Amino acid sequence: MAELAAKNESPEVLFWVGCAGSFDDRYKKVTVAFVKILNKAGIKFAVLGTEESCTGDPARRAGNEFTFQMLAMSNIQVLNMYGVKKIVTACPHCFNTLKNEYPELGGHYEVVHHSEFLQGLINEDRVRVEGGETFKGRRITFHDSCYLGRANDVYEAPRKVLEALDADLVEMKRCRTKGLCCGAGGGQMFKEPEAGKKDVNIERVEEALGTGADTIAVACPFCMVMMTDGVKNKEKEDSVKVYDLAELIARAEGL
Amino acid sequence: MALIQQIIFIAALGTVAWLVVRRIRIISAIIRLGRAEDRNDQPAKRWAVMFRVALGQKKMFDRPLIGFLHFAVYAGFILINIEVLEITLDGLLGKHRLFAPFLGSFYPFLLGFFEFLAISVLLACTIFLIRRSILKVERLQPSRHREMSGWPQLDGKLILVFEIVLMIAILTMNAADSVLQDLGSEHYTRTGDFFFSQFLKPVFEGWNENSLIIYERFAWWLHILGIFVFAVYLTYSKHLHIVLAFPNTYFSRLIPKGKMHNMPEITNEVKMMLGLETSQTGEVAAVPERFGAKDVQDLSWKNLMDAYSCTECGRCTAACPANMTGKKLSPRKIMMDTRDRLEDVGKNMLANGGEFADDGKSLMGDYILNEEILACTSCNACVQECPVLINPLDIILQLRRYKIMDEAQAPGSWNMMFQNLDTNQAPWKFSPGDRFNWANELRQEQP
């Protein structure tokens, strides 16, 4: 972003990478896949790089409003300084916070989740799902993330993106508004679960495995961790893979 | 005799009206203990939500069969009130079937329709009772959900028994009435048989006129006094949802479920720390009494109305990922605890001349435990499920704010996360300077 700003240019969209997308080894692959898709589609985009901070979502959900607002305010300063208009992010938690919670603090942007952005690119034919791996006949199930679905009513975009793969899309019984959480939201990602008889991600993975799908598609870095751990716990990591939407599209494009 | 009946009726009606009005005033005073929150924007949208969700019971039809049965009870309740109006006027004026002469041949048709509703209510309530007691629907069982043991469990069954008794009373009353008409009894207006109760007439075959009159009067009184008692009872019961569902849906959240309420008092402080302009010019920002919610007075009035609107159906709890995996959290319990606390606060205020005297207790700690609120994933499943748009998550998150910011009691790993966020702007321990390293792979690929 700084480089573009120095050249007095402005991007079509700012890609908000998020902490998982920047630091988590597994999710960095999603970041790279999404960037490759954007590059191939010829999208003029920018990232904040080291100027990006956590949106503050985990702090706010855990109850720490001070830390949330400190992070939010400094992010808003940076975003407003660059005159950012439109943001795309692969993280539903960042998406929710940027879209719904930053305006009250002075940050007004058009915020889209990468599932919506990808759907748009596919519809406009800027992304052609061809030239790479074929998913025809493969069974894929999509796990709704709470902060995309119930929190923001985005249910169809990720499904439309998956449909472009021409795969066999199977739904779990608890899907869309009834989708079951992966267990990581509300700050749970950063603490041990409370005492109980089962972990939430195991409950969800059992349901996903029950569909007979060989691929569990996710659209959230936290869901990615929880579902991957769940699959490992069930010792199915050889036969069932967990991928983000962007990774599936990138593979189908041969990127 | 008729005059005594009239006097007793007027006395009963007056007592009930007094008790109900008093209770309504207490409940509204309790709800107004809550924090101010503006829920009056977008009235057109609010009316539409209320129309759809409360009047049309849209969310109940997520489960079509149960939705249909519930709708039968609901429609029966509302429409039979027209018949109750006639009964009340009869009672006040010492008349019998006051509307019959005015409505002519339409009267038996109308009564037939009310009887159809009565039969539907009877059937639906019987099925509901079977679901609670014999089929043992999981979400309603105290053995599985501790908040349902004792009174809530009994309350749920009592209401159903109440309604069944009321419906049997009205149907047998009509049947006895028809038999009396056949006998040409003096006071019984000729209306002809009614559609359903005619099949109950054989029950009264061979009864003499006097016994029939006694039964008819007994059933009449049982029905109307039953309704009176029910009217008072419901203000103390989960059954209050039949009234509060309407305002509660009207004042429901219209913003995305994912959005948390901002805390402007903190915004000011953060702006000062960052050297930004604060919205308050010159004035020193008022330091709030406490951050987040410790007790019911710290919650918004809408949270409190939510608590009184809850009918303890447990759809929230059945959908809660924490609850279904054995954690202590139950969104229904959050609402029931809030209501229990409100009732205790209300009693305290009544006993202390309208002022709340500190009883050393609070919602957080004495009613709801930290372990419960810590188990929440903020997934909004409970919010999504509620047929009357109650939001348990909103309460949970406000309690968390209190625990974390006011009491500074966070689990160790959360404190680590906060520390990481404060020092390196990421929830994990990574250097901010490494934030762009993911691009190295791409840079290498490019020539």
Helix/strand structural class of chain A: alpha/beta
The count of domains of chain B is 2
> What is the helix tally of chain B?
19
Radius of gyration of chain A equals 18 Å
Q: Which SSEs are present, and which pair or pack?
A:
The complex is a heterodimer of chains A (255) and B (447).
Chain A lengths: L1 H5 L6 E4 L1 H6 L1 H17 L3 E2 L10 H6 L2 H17 L4 E4 L2 H10 L8 E4 H10 L15 E4 L13 H8 L4 E3 L29 H11 L4 E4 L2 H13 L7 E4 H8 L3
Chain B lengths: L1 H30 L11 H13 L8 H30 L6 H4 L2 H28 L17 H33 L25 H26 L6 H10 L13 H10 L27 H9 L5 H5 L1 H4 L6 H21 L11 H5 L2 H5 L6 H5 L6 H15 L5 H13 L15 H6 L2
Helix pairs in contact in B: 1-3, 1-7, 1-13, 2-8, 3-5, 5-6, 6-7, 8-10, 10-13, 13-17
Summary, kept brief:
The complex is a heterodimer of chains A (255) and B (447). Chain A is α/β, with parallel strands linked by helices and 255 residues long. Chain A has helices at residues 2-6, 18-23, 25-41, 57-62, 65-81, 92-101, 114-123, 156-163, 200-210, 221-233, 245-252, and strands at 13-16, 45-46, 86-89, 110-113, 139-142, 168-170, 215-218, 241-244.
Give structural attributes.
heterodimer; A: 255 residues; alpha/beta; Rossmann fold; 2 domains; 4-stranded parallel β-sheet; 11 helices; 44% helix; B: Fumarate Reductase Iron-sulfur Protein, Chain B, domain 2; 19 helices
Write up what this structure looks like.
The complex is a heterodimer of chains A (255) and B (447). Chain A has 255 residues and is of the alpha/beta class. Chain A has helices at 2-6, 18-23, 25-41, 57-62, 65-81, 92-101, 114-123, 156-163, 200-210, 221-233, 245-252, and strands at 13-16, 45-46, 86-89, 110-113, 139-142, 168-170, 215-218, 241-244. In chain A, the strands form two sheets. Chain A has a four-stranded parallel beta sheet with strand order 2-1-3-4. Chain A has a four-stranded parallel beta sheet with strand order 6-5-7-8, with helices on both faces. Chain A is globular and about 50 Å long. In chain A, 56% of the residues are buried. Chain B has two domains: 2-250; 289-427, Orthogonal Bundle (Fumarate Reductase Iron-sulfur Protein, Chain B, domain 2), CATH 1.10.1060. Chain B has helices spanning 2-31, 43-55, 64-93, 100-103, 106-133, 151-183, 209-234, 241-250, 264-273, 301-309, 315-319, 321-324, 331-351, 363-367, 370-374, 381-385, 392-406, 412-424, 440-445. The model of chain B has no long low-confidence stretch (mean pLDDT 93). The interface between A and B is large, with 71 and 69 residues.
